[in-house]
Design brief:
This protein has 356 residues and is of the alpha/beta class. The chain contains eleven helices and twelve strands.
Length: 356
Amino acid sequence: MITSKTPLPSGATRPPAPSRRRAAALKLTAVVLGVTLVAAGCGDSSENGSAGDGGGGGLDGKTINFVGYGSDNPWGAYFNKVFTDKLEAEGAEVVDLTTMDPGTAVTNFNQAISNRPDLIVAALLDTSSMVVPIQKAKQADIPVLVFDGRPDPSVDGDVMQVLSDNEALGVAAAQNLVEGMQAQGKDSGSIIAITGTKSGFASQDRMTGFDAEMAKTPEYEVIEVEDGNWDPALTGKIATQLIAKHGCEGIQGAYGMANYQAVAIIASAEQAGCEVGGDNGWIVTGSNCFKAGIDAIKAGTLYGTATEDPGTIAEQTADYVARYFNGEDPPQKEIVQEERVTADNVDQFEAQCSNA
């Protein structure tokens, strides 16, 4: 170390001491840098804040834009009534932007963003097409709650969620089919499946659970999977086409993703002269319950279904919204408990499943 008392080597010069101006500048730079780091840290904290903080003011006066399933769908009709009635009773305004058309749903979601509501509540008919609208809502600082089917993984952390346990529903459908055919003494069988809208994760996740469960008994083979778009008329038409292709004897089991789809399959089969239920007829299952399905189970034409009734999830979704605006900080994601339904326990679920 060189000090003022240390002699310098011959020919060397002592480096100049920093001036007072330079020292002051260095000190100022350090202070500014410290302030900048603190500000940056505060920014990160804000971006990672809780999605469940709705302000604590309650529902009264809040505006909710509802991009749900259309009321021309029986599941959607009952969900919409329960959900809307409960929120409006607590003073919220619910703007109806519901539809069963995936393209219209995107348009309606974008309209909701333009409306700048306090919350957007959405069902995702086409999961991928809703990614950009969800991102736009986040940029506009408008919270979004998704119900029934999950969002695309790329925006999973950007929305709140109240979800059906769709994989469990698919597992229950597979169990119903295998159990029913085994009870008839069949050691093999060919199965058709007519799904809800294939582009939505609600349908995809049910098929994931269904396929995984069916893989345990490969002697029962799924020979056709068709997109019924949650539409009973389309489902019946597809079923008629598949019967024409395979014949009554070429099909032993059928999965209609919603009960009203399963009942449409039964109607098409019976119209074509195929035997349904009983000791040797088709085994048919649904995977979310309606009154028509409960009646068909009791009549012996529908082997079974599962819950996922619209009333239960509507109540839970509306309750989630209320907790959010009451500042109760609900978890980002909630899963609705589902149950398998057959003739053995149909009485237990009849009231729950007979509202739509």
